[in-house]
Amino acid sequence: MDLHLDIFSPVQPIRSKIFDDKGLTVSIKRDDLIHPVISGNKWRKLKYVLQRAANDRKTHLVTFGGAYSNHLMATAAAAAKFGFKATGLVRGEPVDNQMLFICRLHGMQLLFVDRESYRDKPALFAENFGNDEQAFFIDEGGASAEGIKGVAELVDELPESYDHIFCACGTGTTAAGIIKGVSSKGLQTVFNGIPVLKNGDFLRADIDGMLSRPSPYHLHTDYHFGGYAKTTPGLIAFIKDFVSNTGVLIDPVYTGKMLYALHDLAAKDHFAPGSKILAIHTGGMWGLLGMQNKFK
User: Fold this and answer.
1) 233: buried, middle or exposed (CB in 10 Å: 19+, 13-18, 0-12)?
2) Average pLDDT value for residue range 162-183
3) CA end-to-end span of the chain, whole Å?
4) What is the pTM of this model?
5) What is the spatial distance between Cα 216 and Cα 175, in angstroms, rounded to a whole number?
6) Which residue intervals of the chain are DSSP H helices?
């Protein structure tokens, strides 16, 4: 099975008055351009997971997510592209929305699961697919050792070294992958993670548990804007301004919060003048479909 996907993820400059005033050189790696649906860190986390499924001769991908999950949609598209059957277990009561429509359009079967049962995903998999020898378990968000390996390859693509790398954090898999990539190349780059969940300091234990050896990094935990998928008028205003001035589309769940944090930290003189900073655009633009009302 050919599991190849062309990677188009250029590094582009970001200009803003605050960066110029503080003497900072800031760029963004456009992982959102990798694929229209299997975009950003979603492809990087799925790449070796799909390879393992193929090596194990599994033909049925089973994964998990919320009703607006970019991971579910990316898995559905990847399954269709590479010839797998796919089932998504969706957290919560049955609903219909644009993203689930895209999942179904790619052939994914959807099963809605109550929130309490959803907490134990291995048990759900065993209950529903224990007798399916072709079924292959993929954790929510693609969290796995294979996911970390795929994300680490991002660092190999960078055209130069940076003083800081910024990235939004959900499960910690992407953070662990980038930290691993930086460490394996012996770079002095400081990884800065922006947890998008409230009380995101818990991610330290998760990230440390995914790393084979201790590595330094920073988590900036004050930019969650109330919690996962929560927003404020200030965040929405920032996103409107950023998109209209750069032409780079960003979302309020992940990349918007990360870039807000980067601008805010720059304004507070967090970085030494002359610092070179790279922001990672992790994709997930389809999530905007459920948030139109916030931009009115």
Assistant:
1) exposed
2) 97
3) 46
4) 0.95
5) 12
6) 17-21, 41-55, 70-82, 98-105, 115-118, 121-129, 145-156, 173-184, 203-210, 233-246, 255-267
Angle between helix 70-82 and helix 41-55 axes, rounded to 10 deg:
50
Tokens 């590479």 map to which residue? 82
Torsion of CA 56, 86, 285, 124, to 10 degrees: -90
How much is the average pLDDT of 206-230?
A: 94
Q: Which two tokens stand for residue 47?
A: 């790449």
* Beta bridge pairs of residue 60: 85, 135
Instruction: Give the tens place of pLDDT for each residue, 105-128.
Output: 999 999 999 999 999 999 999 999
* Six-digit token string for 209: 């548990």
DSSP label at residue 33: G
Backbone dihedral region for residue 31 (phi beyond 0: left; psi -120 to 50: alpha; all else: beta): alpha
Length of the chain equals 296
Angle at 263 between CA 275 and CA 287, to 5 degrees: 120
- Cα 279 to its chain centre, rounded Å, is 13
- Read off the DSSP letter of residue 31: G
Q: Where are the beta strands (DSSP E) in the chain?
A: 11-14, 25-30, 60-65, 85-91, 109-113, 135-137, 164-169, 190-195, 218-219, 276-281
What mean pLDDT comes out for the span 216-223? Answer: 97
Opening angle at CA 7, ends 214 and 218, nearest 5:
25
Residue 162: HSE in the Cβ half-sphere, 13 Å Cα cutoff? 27
- Report the Cα 25 to chain-centroid distance in Å: 24
Summarize pLDDT for 1-13 with one digit per residue, the tens: 778 888 899 999 9
| CA separation for the pair 247, 120 (Å, rounded) | 41
Task: Tell me the one-letter amino acid at 125.
Answer: F
What letter represents residue 17's amino acid?
A: K
